[in-house]
Design brief:
5-stranded antiparallel β-sheet, 104 residues
């Protein structure tokens, strides 16, 4: 399956055109390799790294979807490898909160 079609089926891109541009602009990594074409083939077991909004997500494909179905169906096709944490590394005010804890 093409990577642009996969992103659209998994509801990680709103439109297939947006998925194509993400792939062609090199914003996605497939198994640690930069993707620069929308027709890059993907298979179950592949690991994708892609920007979603202000974050970068890492997912592993479990199965290839057969259609663009509802969100729960799409989410069952992949596993998120980087679960969101309460204290992301790039949090804007994290260093301020951490230094307050260290002060006597």
């Amino acid at each position: 399956m093409r990577i642009d079609k996969l992103l659209w089926y998994l509801r990680l891109a709103k439109t297939r055109t947006l998925a194509q541009s993400l792939a062609e602009e090199g914003h996605i990594r497939l198994n640690s390799r930069r993707v620069d074409r929308a027709h890059q083939k993907v298979a179950p077991g592949d690991v994708l790294t892609l920007p979603l909004g202000p974050r970068v997500r890492v997912i592993e494909l479990l199965v290839l979807p057969t259609r663009r179905g509802p969100a729960p169906e799409a989410q069952s096709c992949y596993r998120v490898l980087d679960e969101p944490s309460d204290f992301p590394l790039a949090a804007p005010n994290r260093s301020d909160a951490a230094t307050e804890d260290l002060q006597p």
